[in-house]
Amino acid sequence: MKVTAIEPKANQTALYRVVVDGKPLGYVRAEDIIGLDIRVNRDLNRQAYSKLIRQIKYTDCYMKAVKYADLRLRSKSEVEFYLKRHGCDPVIAREITSRMESFGLIDEAKLAAAFIHDAELVKPVSRRLLIAKLKQKGISQDVISANLAESGYDEQSVLDQLIAKKAPYYKDNQSRFFHYLLRQGFNYDAIAKRIGSPVNMGSRLKRSPKAR
Questions:
Q1: pLDDT digit string (tens) for 27-65?
Q2: Rounded distance, CA 160 to CA 158, Å?
């Protein structure tokens, strides 16, 4: 196997396509060319070829990961899952997310802070549901707790916001509204204090087909 060409990518000068025996294999970074000692007309033994293929796969996965994380803030777990779903080797996926984290391309503290901010101002959600969603993203409890404390998250205020936002949609079915708020993870007593409890809704609850 012989390297027959090394061609710079048109719109990304830091990337180079490696051609072996006239067949384009993929892209590597400029520093990889030096590290792997890739040069035109070099004969590659099996070991050198395997290293080149691994680096090409790594570069392809890394480019996908950066593009994915550039759309919005992502956790390491989310990026790893995305890469595995697109055929990236799990070991390479972990290497990439660790590298991205060291470069600040993945910042789970910033993600948690942004998520909490949205939960307070844009999409009101209970503390319980908020924590559950952040854990689903693979963010540690320590990071979640630190950001909740720093944000001064006030669940009672958030509940008031959600009630004000959703009340018009449930004006004809208070019982349904109550259960909606329960599903969002808010405390039963806190909800009842604001809109009344299903028990006190009397005949309205009995008339509801869903209640039966």
A1: 999 999 999 999 999 999 999 999 999 999 999 999 999
A2: 5
Average pLDDT (181-188) is 91
Tens-place pLDDT, residues 140-171 = 999 999 999 998 889 999 999 999 999 998 88
- Going by the DSSP 8-state scheme, the letter that residue 168 receives in this structure is G
Which residue type is seen at 73? L
Which ranges in 22-107 belong to alpha helices (H)? 30-35, 46-71, 76-85, 90-102
Structure tokens that stand for 135 in this block: 């854990």
If one counts every other C-beta atom within 10 angstroms of the C-beta of residue 103, the result is 10
134: tokens are 């952040």
What's the CA angle centered on 133, arms 127 and 61, to 5 degrees? 150
Whole-model pTM over 0.90: no
Q: How far is CA 190 from CA 56, 134, 161, 183, in A?
A: 56, 23, 13, 13
Alpha-carbon distance of 153 to 60, in angstroms, equals 40
Give the residue among 155, 192, 157 at the shortest CA–CA distance from 174.
192
Residue with tokens 């004006």: 171
Residue 179 pairs in a beta bridge with: none
Distance separating alpha carbons of residues 16 and 27, to the nearest angstrom:
5
**Rounded alpha-carbon distances, angstroms, from residue 30 to 7, 47, 113, 126:** 11, 20, 36, 48
**Rounded-to-integer distance, Cα 184 and Cα 180, Å:** 7
